[in-house]
Design brief:
Metallo-depent_PP-like, 5-stranded mixed β-sheet, 37% helix, disordered N terminus, Ap4A_hydrolase
């Protein structure tokens, strides 16, 4: 009886820390939003970090929203495509990629796309802002299709809904609580905020996501948000993961180099 009481009132066993398969490493990068300058800085810092840590099978995960708002969406897509020829890269589809694809088929969607950063994307493909302002919406949709190469659209269509590696689930926006990983809707993976953000239960894995901007990485017991507002705050963040360890790497406006923040152990 005494033994049962001791078990009942004992401190709970700490939750098992999420981990990657043995010797594997992941770098996940938050929402880039056309900031090719920050993207290049962060890739350089990741390369230095890899060299310092030594060789390991490594996956680079881009969490979606590569485009819109910033000044060089076309350049970011070109750089991302180049990366896929150089190393193992998983790219997730964000809501802004979805909006671009939809806007090229639907003039009403194009109006929304332009208001939420699509104007900058079209300019990065060579359309002048003044020209865009003068066009009728249907004419602009056709002009956008002529300026954006089909290979870029096919590249975007290849982006994934989510990726699972070990105990980690990488997704752009988040997951619907209570729904299995296998049956999550693509729309939720690209757009959801609530009830995902306030959920404190288990998602079936530890979730790393972007989409919702915070000034610093938003680390919770069941998820980690790393959209630190590249186009708002001028900070692009990556998380490095190996075993049960996590650490952050950032690239910031106004600095010639990006840097690593203090390493942390996942709780």
């Amino acid at each position: 009886m005494l033994g049962k009481l001791r078990k009942l009132f004992a401190n709970p066993t700490p939750a098992q820390r999420p981990s990657l398969p043995h010797r594997e490493r992941v770098y996940a990068i938050g929402d880039i939003h056309g900031r090719l300058d920050l993207f290049e800085k962060l890739l350089e810092t990741i390369a230095h970090d890899e060299a310092a840590r030594g060789p390991a099978p490594t996956t680079l995960v881009l969490l979606g929203d590569l485009i819109d708002r910033g000044q060089d969406s076309a350049g970011v897509l070109a750089r991302a495509r180049q990366l896929t020829r150089e190393r193992h890269v998983e790219i997730l589809c964000g809501n802004h990629e979805e909006m671009l694809l939809t806007s090229l088929e639907d003039s009403k969607a194009l109006r929304s796309f332009l208001r939420f950063g699509g104007l900058e994307t079209l300019v990065s493909y060579g359309l002048a802002a003044e020209t865009i302002a003068e066009m009728e919406i249907d004419e602009l949709r056709e002009e956008a299709r002529r300026h954006i190469p089909e290979q870029d659209l096919e590249f975007i269509r290849s982006f994934r809904k989510l990726v699972r590696i070990g105990d980690y689930i990488f997704v752009h926006a988040g997951l619907r609580p209570g729904v299995s990983i296998e049956t999550q809707l693509g729309s939720d993976c690209r757009w959801i905020r609530e009830p995902f953000l306030s959920h404190t239960g288990n998602f079936g894995g530890f979730v790393v996501h972007g989409h919702t901007i915070t000034e610093e990485p938003d680390e919770r017991d069941n998820r980690l948000g790393i959209d630190t507002g590249a186009y708002v705050h001028g900070t692009l963040t990556a998380v490095g993961i190996e075993g049960t360890e996590r650490w952050y790497l950032t690239a910031e406006d106004g600095t010639s180099e990006s840097h690593q923040t203090g390493a942390t152990v996942a709780a």
